[in-house]
């Protein structure tokens, strides 16, 4: 998960270091291209405009309010990449994508709104089309495995399309958010998004997704037996394999401001092979944190308003779903509210992960108690209300109380 082989030029730019540094299981000796290829291969989900109208509203864009939903989508997308393609996978066209300039994407959003408005008046519209067709790309792949990877790459992106039918698209996430009192145009905090993502995965009716589930920690506690129960509950009677799980842990890294003592904790978390990132940000803006460099966090920024892409088209362009350059910010600017994500392929993987994460928590904790914990048993063993829900009520009363508490403590509207 860790990205750390870069040197600082300024707050938003990254440069190659002279010495090498580890990225997951392979060592890079100042190889900027390898870093860029790994980073660009991650799925980038940003504000979009002119997508199908969100039910119950007149909105056709999430610009200005949907950034935490987008960062949540990015974390889930990374988990799905690990699940279907593996950590070693990179997008073959990653280094062919056009790099962005150093100008702030937030200011570009304003410019894009202006350009869009002017284009609508003149009847002109800029259309982005792929430079190489899907057929031509497929012909370049050397074996069936590479072709299969490209099919899954596109399939994963399509699940996050901005249409009512996309399994993890904005429209569906908003529908699940309604169960917690949220609606389109509202602000969504990291803890609320964690529960929405869990519901979206649980309710997804796709054969490829039967082997993965999501668990959300309760009050900064991961109950191991509850996780394993979710992994061993199969949706198909003929499937005896345990499921992969994405564990989401909503936490606070301080009071009104992030406590600097948590820097080593965050760096330790991002260094773990099980970590799929952090839904966080700074006050008024949500980011998807994917790594760190020294005392700065490397992130993907959703605050860039791009045009709607119809992912139902067979050869839809991929370029706008991959971030051309990383950004970073000082840890001191991080908002204390965040949600940490981990991916475990099976029960044994979860057991190993819980042991490794627990060791890291003990080492990095300067307080008497760690920021979150793994405990044996079920939540019901500790007199907590079960979070089992029925079809009529996607969020239990206990969940609603926790979500309401978290949502009042998190970000303010951009």
UniProtKB/TrEMBL annotation:
Pfam families: ATG4_LIR, Peptidase_C54. Transmembrane segments: none annotated. It catalyses: [protein]-C-terminal L-amino acid-glycyl-phosphatidylethanolamide + H2O = [protein]-C-terminal L-amino acid-glycine + a 1,2-diacyl-sn-glycero-3-phosphoethanolamine. The keyword 4Fe-4S does not apply. GO terms for cellular component: cytoplasm. GO terms for molecular function: cysteine-type endopeptidase activity; protein-phosphatidylethanolamide deconjugating activity. It is found in: Cytoplasm. It comes from the Eukaryota. Residues 33-354 form the Peptidase C54 catalytic domain. Its EC number is 3.4.22.-. It is an enzyme of class 3 (hydrolase). GO terms for biological process: aggrephagy; autophagosome assembly; mitophagy; piecemeal microautophagy of the nucleus; protein processing; protein transport. The keyword tRNA-binding does not apply. Keywords: Autophagy, Cytoplasm, Hydrolase, Protease, Protein transport, Thiol protease, Transport, Ubl conjugation pathway. Its main location: cytoplasm. Belongs to the peptidase C54 family. Cysteine protease that plays a key role in autophagy by mediating both proteolytic activation and delipidation of ATG8 family proteins. This is Cysteine protease. It comes from Bos indicus (Zebu). The gene is ATG4C.
């Amino acid at each position: 998960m860790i990205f750390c082989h870069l040197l600082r030029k300024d707050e938003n730019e990254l440069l190659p270091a002279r010495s090498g540094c580890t990225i997951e299981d392979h060592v890079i000796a100042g190889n900027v291209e390898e870093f860029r290829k790994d980073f660009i291969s991650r799925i980038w989900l940003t504000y979009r405009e002119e997508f199908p109208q969100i039910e119950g509203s007149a909105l056709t864009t999430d610009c200005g309010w949907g950034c935490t939903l987008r960062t949540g989508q990015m974390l889930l997308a990374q988990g799905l990449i690990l699940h279907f393609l593996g950590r070693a996978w990179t997008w073959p066209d990653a280094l062919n994508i056009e790099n962005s300039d150093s100008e702030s994407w937030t200011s570009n959003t304003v410019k894009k709104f202006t350009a869009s408005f002017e284009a609508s008046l003149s009847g002109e519209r800029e259309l982005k089309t792929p430079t190489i067709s899907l057929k031509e790309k497929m012909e370049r792949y050397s074996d069936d495995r590479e072709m299969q990877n490209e099919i899954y790459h596109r399939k994963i992106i399509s699940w996050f399309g901005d249409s009512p039918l996309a399994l993890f698209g904005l429209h569906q996430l908003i529908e699940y958010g309604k169960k917690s009192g949220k609606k389109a145009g509202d602000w969504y905090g990291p803890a609320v998004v964690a529960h929405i993502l869990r519901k979206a995965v649980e309710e997804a009716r796709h054969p490829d997704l039967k082997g993965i589930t999501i668990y959300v920690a309760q009050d900064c506690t991961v109950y191991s037996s509850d996780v394993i129960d979710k992994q061993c509950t199969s949706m198909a009677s003929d499937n005896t394999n345990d499921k992969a799980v994405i564990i989401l842990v909503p936490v606070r890294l301080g009071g009104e401001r992030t406590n600097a003592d948590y820097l080593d904790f965050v760096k330790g978390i991002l260094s773990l092979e099980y970590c799929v990132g952090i839904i966080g940000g700074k006050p008024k803006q949500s980011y998807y944190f994917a790594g760190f460099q020294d005392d700065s966090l490397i992130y993907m920024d959703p605050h860039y308003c791009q045009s709607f892409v119809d992912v139902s088209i067979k050869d839809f362009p991929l370029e706008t779903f991959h971030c051309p350059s990383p950004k970073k910010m000082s840890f001191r600017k991080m908002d204390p509210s965040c949600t940490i994500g981990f991916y475990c392929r099976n029960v044994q993987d979860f057991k190993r992960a819980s042991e490794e994460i627990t060791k890291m928590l003990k080492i990095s904790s300067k307080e008497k108690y760690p920021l979150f914990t793994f405990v044996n048993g079920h939540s019901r063993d500790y007199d907590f209300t079960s979070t089992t829900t029925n079809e009529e009520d996607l969020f239990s009363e206990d969940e609603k109380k926790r979500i309401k508490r978290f949502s009042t403590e998190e970000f303010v509207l951009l």
